[in-house]
Amino acid sequence: MKRYTFFGIILFSIISALPAGAVNVFKHYDKVIWIDQPRQSGAAYEKGQKLFSFSILSGDDETPTPPGAYVVKVKDANYYSRKYQQPMSYSIFIDFKAKRAIHEGGVPDQGEKSKWATHGCIHVEEPYIKRLFDWAEPRKTLIVIRGKRDWSSEEQVGEVDEGIQETPEKEEIGPEEEIRPQDKNQLREENQQREEIPQEKESQPGDEDEDTGD
User: In degrees to the nearest 10, what's the CA dihedral of 26, 30, 36, 37?
Assistant: First the structure.
């Protein structure tokens, strides 16, 4: 039996046995990308420790960025959106079929964010996106997207702490928060599908028929 198949069965058993509380994602993934849409910020965690944080720009009500838990399956440093005729450099795909990804893109100042939105992707600027891209491992990294954009409070949220924290205080560990039941089900489904992705997939011209990215 393949290693990922075995891991998926074990993880499925663990998640199924959990009470209706929540899943602590750190118990199942060493690497977690935590996206907080209400605050329009993100952070990279490894083994429960926050490595770095960064500002983001996500979608709006018309072109939302769906909350949930997603296993990274595909990365493409040079992906190009034919639909929008724009590069999506350093793409870490959330949904490869829909071409929705965390990728390099403009992020306005905090006070200007309420005027801007993506088409459903998550923009992260350099140098953080390259660092995130190099660090994330397909099938071993979980992306957690929390909440939806809160337009009324975006201008009041301060800039994120972009320093490296080796030993963050407990309350700073966002991913220890509860994952909603629907997110837990998605996490379960993602892990059951792991054996279907034998290796990192490179984008192909025919894969872009349903391009909704950027």
Answer: -120
